[in-house]
Amino acid sequence: MEKFDFIAIGGGSAGIAAANRAGSFGKKVLLIEGNEIGGTCVNVGCVPKKIMWSAASMAQDFNLAADYGFNVQKPQLEFAKLVANRSAYIDRLHGSYFRNLDKNHVQVIKGYAKFVDNRTVEVNGSQYESDHILIAVGGTPDIPDISGAEYGIESNQFFNELNELPTSVAIIGNGYVGTELAGTLNALGSKVHMYAKYDALLPKFDELISTNVTESYVKKGIDISFKSEIAEIKKTSDGKLEVVANDGTIIVDRVIWAVGRHPVTDKINISATDVVLNDDGTIMVDDYQNTSVAGVYATGDVIGKMDLTPVAIAASRRLMERVFNNKPTEHLDYQLVPSVVFSHPVAGTIGLTEAEAILEYGEDNLKIYRSTFTPMRYSLGDVKETENLKLITFGENERIIGLHGVGEGMDEMLQGFAVAIKMGATKKDFDDTVAIHPTSAEEFVTMT
Ligand SMILES: Cc1cc2nc3c(=O)[nH]c(=O)nc-3n(C[C@H](O)[C@H](O)[C@H](O)COP(=O)(O)OP(=O)(O)OC[C@H]3O[C@@H](n4cnc5c(N)ncnc54)[C@H](O)[C@@H]3O)c2cc1C
Ligand SMILES: NC(=O)c1ccc[n+]([C@@H]2O[C@H](COP(=O)([O-])OP(=O)(O)OC[C@H]3O[C@@H](n4cnc5c(N)ncnc54)[C@H](O)[C@@H]3O)[C@@H](O)[C@H]2O)c1
């Protein structure tokens, strides 16, 4: 049986980052991936999603052209061409991932791995051994157990199979995926009906984000059923889909499930190991990504902590530094992680929501700053978008413990503010920074 210094199961964001880092230390590394290299993010997540989001943003910008004096008709979208160009780009990314793995002398096997015991995995009938094994198998979309659920598609199928822009679509789910796909499809020209479990989209976010994204979607013509329950999906005689819900029935071309994800730990024969799972099937880890078995680790979506690519990458790299590069305390701090929802308008967030801050620090110890305005880009005509920003500060020195925003540029402006907040910035630090004019970002350093 061949022995490796390190084996990573799963060639997504988490597994690739770990394998490359271990390889860069001269370790003998095996990476096992059952599907396309790059995992969810590259193939059916962040990357194709952002391409679609960019196309949708362009479509929206055409609405502004007349206000700026351009005498142009709104161009037609060739959806199949967009999909083909997106696929070609992803193919190029695959190539660059393989080149990087090769540069770090990582051996890659295509196949689905299963544990044989705490130190051994089997793939394609061969067994491989290591004292250091990373479980980085990620997750897959949920599909509810209701009649006709199979007529709907989930996000993997949306990116792998959809070659035509649906005329009408029902999107079930109001989290990241549902909200992002709804905004994009609406801007590209589909008639969108969303089904939300609660009374606003993005219910886990600060109320500024959930309220403004919800209101903006309604204003843009997206129908939203709140507190919805889907009873069944039926196929009509002309091939359309009938969504039967607690508030009535609609008929659409496509149904998209966006109701959450679950880890794929049920397929790796985890019972052959002493690794302990949480109740929801995610892998139980400590602050250092250790599972309950010494030498077996888990990072990325499979731990169910924060399903974001940069989190998966950061945790994996730090783990490799700790295990193979003599940095015994290295680990990821999961506090103050910035994240963006690529909705239309885009939303960005870091730190505590107002509700969380009140719970943790008490209302009297907080000072909250808000700002709503129309960015200059939307000042010439009838097409209007607003920018809504919020700072949550704590204590006498007004340390910033939460920053949230909805509106143009929020995706790009958040990263720099995140650095400052991670360093412990106070409101005074923001006030002491001279604004950049005219931008939306300047509002964060001029709020009173
Ligand atoms: C639609 C969508 C949009 C997203 N957009 C963003 C975004 O904009 N920004 C962001 O930060 N995050 C985004 N995410 C989340 C991000 O994609 C994940 O957090 C990230 O991919 C997690 O990486 P991972 O390596 O843990 O898991 P994955 O990327 O899922 O990788 C796991 C890999 O393991 C493989 N695998 C599974 N079982 C086995 C086995 N037994 N043997 C071998 N291989 C196996 C799988 O095939 C897969 O390739 C998005 C997710 C979705 C679904
Ligand atoms: N921009 C990004 O960074 C980005 C984008 C997409 C996904 N992600 C990551 O992937 C994870 C998974 O995203 P997701 O959207 O699949 O899950 P999610 O947990 O964010 O959202 C699922 C939503 O569906 C709702 N829901 C569940 N059952 C429902 C039902 N029967 N009817 C209506 N609504 C229902 C839930 O209330 C929840 O709000 C996210 O938590 C995020 O970490 C990140």
Automatic annotation (TrEMBL):
Q: Which family does it belong to?
A: Belongs to the class-I pyridine nucleotide-disulfide oxidoreductase family.
- Per UniProt, residues of the Pyridine nucleotide-disulphide oxidoreductase dimerisation domain are 337-447
Q: Which InterPro entries match?
A: FAD/NAD-bd_sf, FAD/NAD-binding_dom, FAD/NAD-linked_Rdtase_dimer_sf, Glutathione_Rdtase_euk/bac, GSHR/TRXR-like, Pyr_nuc-diS_OxRdtase, Pyr_nucl-diS_OxRdtase_dimer, Pyr_OxRdtase_I_AS
Recorded name of the encoding gene: gorA
What EC designation does it have?
A: 1.8.1.7
Under Gene Ontology molecular function, one entry of this record is: glutathione-disulfide reductase (NADPH) activity
One Pfam family for this entry, by name?
Pyr_redox_dim
Q: Where is the FAD/NAD(P)-binding domain?
A: 5-314
State the UniProt keywords alphabetically.
Disulfide bond, FAD, Flavoprotein, Oxidoreductase, Redox-active center
PROSITE patterns hit by this protein: PYRIDINE_REDOX_1
Q: Which cofactor does it need?
A: FAD
Keyword flag Disulfide bond: yes
Source organism superkingdom: Bacteria
**Entry keyword annotation includes Oxidoreductase:** yes
Under the heading NCBIfam families, the entry gives: gluta_reduc_1, PRK06116.1
Protein name according to UniProt:
Glutathione-disulfide reductase
